[in-house]
Amino acid sequence: MTTINDPPVVAEVTDLYLKYEEALCNNNLEVMDSLFWDAPEVVRFGITENLYGSDEIRNFRQNRPNPKIEREISNLKVLTFGKDAATVTLEFRRIINGVERFGRQSQTWYRFTEGWKVVSAHVSLLPV
């Protein structure tokens, strides 16, 4: 039977997500890149873009017009399935062009032999 939300696994994925969040807010491309699966199958759906494969994701991040992302996160939820699969969901608040915006984010993580990696991600804004 699969163990749901084993506390040590939840803590491990939570720590990795917080490392990703810090890298995102500080535009640390190396850390963000290291936490995403380096494969053509990885997917990231963003606010204005659909990215397929690690090359597209890496290229988007390197050319992002506003690389600094300042936001407040809330409702961070980490759900683990056994020791090798997890989802992370959260809500966030950002000021974009002087307007307060609310959004949500989800990630699917999988533990490979080289460690945990994001295999799918989604970011969206709620309507104004």
From TrEMBL:
Give the superkingdom in one word: Bacteria
Question: Which Pfam families does this entry report, sorted A to Z?
Answer: AtzH-like (PF11533)
The coiled-coil segments of this chain are none
Q: Which Gene3D superfamilies match?
A: 3.10.450.50
Instruction: Report what the protein is called.
Output: Oxalurate catabolism protein HpxZ
Q: Which organism is it from?
A: Nostoc sphaeroides CCNUC1
